[in-house]
Amino acid sequence: MRFFKIIAVIVVLLVGAYAASMYFFVDENKDFKIEKEVDYPIDKVFSQFNNLQHFTRWNNFFTSSPSIDIDYYTPYEGQGGAISYVDPKNDTDGEMFIRYENPAKSLRYQLFEDRNENPTVVDVQFKAVSPDKTKIIWNVHTPKLSVFRRVENFWTEDRFAENINKSMVNLKNVLGNKVEKDNQMASIKYDSLMVENEENKLLLGINVSASNKKEALYKNIVMNYSKIYNYVTMDLGKKDDEFGFPILITDADNYKDKEISYFLGIPLSKKIGVPDNNFSFRTVNPSQNYVIYYKGNYEGRIQAVQQLIQKAKKDEMRFGDIRQTFIERPIEGQEVNMKLSLSVFK
């Protein structure tokens, strides 16, 4: 009995010492600042922060768990925007609000975690470093913690910083795809032959052999694009602004063949595990291309392809594959809007 009393006294003393040290030497809440820069204009960056549907697509706090379920409340954008979330796997839930917005300059978020009545308050400032570069500044004020939970303040800043680092990688991928699409749409000049240097791309897609009979090939492309799109968005959980335009790669002069083999894929930023053997990755190496934009029925692309081949022959250039980039997703019964690229070399 005496032994247990001694143990009890020791435990009480240790708890008291812990509580005293937390009370006198550890702040009840924490304030810190984190700064980052991204190579995109301030208007495009800000729109990813003030729209919570965009925000949750790249912020690691929400993307890191596959089991998280998010509900969005109107207005989805700007002051008054709100979400609630539940993550049964990690046994967490909470609510997030945009309490203040100064367009293209600053936002204030409040995050209530696990029914805590005291929120984490995050003030985010946006500063244009140049027309194509933005500085993002997070000023974080954590909620007050009880004496026994104040030890959490030792790793709060590191955990928040790690989340921002991962989020910035996701944000750059999202903005990269979005800006690339916007720039391509803005630079389109139909039926004009141009020369472009194309960077390497990583495509996830499928290899196909299909009949080249009238309309049969395009129907086959539409069907296979739907397979790839559904796999990328539903099975892999990617959003539309996380990947690029679909690209079809085939021999440049096989439009006369009875059967055509092609690879159709969607550009992704990095390789990921793909358990379905029907899909594979293909790397498109950097190349110099003769390019022409075409809009019309799919069969009509042949004339544009012939223009590219004739140009290559005239310039005494050898050529490789033809790449058909669908600026608008292929839909049966509708015209195509595409970029045709013929890789050329001496």
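The above is record 1. Record 2 follows with the same two-line structure.
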Amino acid sequence: MAFGINRQELYTWKRAVQNGEIAFLTHYWLDDRFPDARTVTKAGCQNIEKLAAWGKQYGLKKEWIDRRSEFPHFDLMGQKQIEILTKEKLFSHIRRFRLQER
């Protein structure tokens, strides 16, 4: 279950993904499969090859791309999430969701 974002943020992310951009959406998240994760960042792009190439620089494998919806994305959690957000200079995501406080 996702929360902590508004409809405009979700719409903006979806539009960027559909336009072939690498787009990021961080939100609070609860999932019994990942009891230690309280946030997730979705790094998405409609162009699977572009998304896979982007992910490769961070050690992400193409087969990890979630393709179940019309918005292909990697789910980033934990230290990898913080590492990538930092390298992508998305400090506002880190501050907003207090990711450094863990």
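The CA atoms of residues 37 and 82 lie 12 Å apart.
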